[in-house]
Amino acid sequence: MLTLEIFVHMDAVDRHAWQGAADDRPLTPLGEQQSERIAEELTAGTVVAIYSSQALRCRASLAPLSQRLSLPVQVLPGFQDTAEKALLALNEIHAAVPDGRAVLCSYGDVVPALLDHLTAKRGQPAPARDNRKGAVFTLHYDGNTGWVESRGPTPGFPT
User: Over the stretch 94-111, which tens digit does the pLDDT of each residue have?
Assistant: First the structure.
């Protein structure tokens, strides 16, 4: 069974102040600190793959973990926009890592939409929406069934 640790990207430059393309919005210095902290937390246990949406802020949120584990960040362009597209990307992850632990970073609107879609499809209660930086959702998924656990940011997580 795939165990997928999912989190929303770390603190990024305000979208209303950003002048460039939406996917090019970078992390703030706080976001860089948060990325280091989440990497510390996620290295407890074996990680076999790291995935990201195409946004720079998501890839940058995973960069410290990638460096610590010497694993590349694999970009899944489908992990954005809608729950249906994210589900297709999730199935790509499951095909690559059917029995292991992987990490994924995506957008604050896509992650809850995917989890809501998966749980509704299986008649389970959706996890509470938690867009706080440092919150992690753990999805246990075999391609047909699964369940989601969630935890808020750990004590002392940079805010």
Answer: 999 999 999 999 988 888
